[in-house]
Amino acid sequence: MDIIALAKNTILQESESIKKLADYIDSDFEKVIKTIFESKGRVIVTGIGKSANISQKIVATFNSTGTPAIFMHAADAIHGDLGIVQEDDVVICISKSGNTPEIKVLVPLIKSRGNKIIGIVSSTDSYLGINSDFVLKSTVDKEACPNNLAPTNSTTAQLVIGDALAVCLLEYRGFSSEDFAKFHPGGALGKKLYMRVSDLYKNNESPKVYENENVKNVIVEISSKRLGATVVLNKSEKISGIITDGDIRRMLQKHDSFENLNAKDIMSLNPKTVDRDELAINAFQIMESNNITQLVVVKKEKYVGMIHLHDILKEGIV
What we know:
There is one protein chain. It contains 15 helices and 12 strands. With 318 residues, the chain is of the alpha/beta class. The chain folds into 2 domains: 3-175, Glucose-6-phosphate isomerase like protein, domain 1 (Rossmann fold); 194-313, CBS-domain (Roll), CATH 3.10.580. The strands form 3 sheets. The protein has a 5-stranded parallel beta sheet with strand order 2-1-3-4-5, sandwiched between helices. A 4-stranded mixed beta sheet has the order 6-7-8-9. It has a 3-stranded mixed beta sheet with strand order 10-11-12. Helix 11 links the parallel strand 6 and strand 7. The relative contact order is 0.10.
């Protein structure tokens, strides 16, 4: 058996099946988008077998992109779970054949309650195809399975139709990156869109020395605050500069003695700053573009703290 050839053939067969779906998109698809968008209820997605698994993924995608959705297993629905469906809900029923016993029992029950049914089905002349208010065709010529039995191409087609619905709905409702972040607060994608410098720098101490402090105090401040740098302030509490570990090393190479040196003698001028309300990912980009590991955090140009590259990295934002 040529395993590599078999794997490639499976992928090519599924991709070809997906490609053909574009030809099935018609006015019903547009009506479905408007029906879901205008509905005051939720989207209930149901199916059985592998179609039930696909239904769960579609529900997850809907919920993460601003369309409230609930999964309802078709078999459980006819044994009590039909109570999930409320008056204003829209029901998406997914089935390859459209003729399974559970579907034939479930569809009339849903219709009797007055809910709209959207059928995602391969056989449009099936029970589900005929009795749905809207039909989204997910027809495939055959399965990728050599025996044409295991759901492969058909479930991939169902999944792609679900993704198309989700993408159209999020565009239709103007779902923004900020909206996306609200639904993904724990993931890296969400953190990029909502985590700010103020969420991170407060966990650090705020190293600072004044212009006329001696170098010994500077070294102690840098060492004790463990950020690899300290801000230098003038008498008016305004930022004069910054002293990093690198500045200390250069001082030691340049001077045999530093007893008479003060902070202002070895500081670097014009340190890079970031506003406390700036996104953390933007702070990272400033560090990356300037090849530095610390940024001075300010609020209305007043020094409030310091953020280190490691603060951002440990959050998994990049």
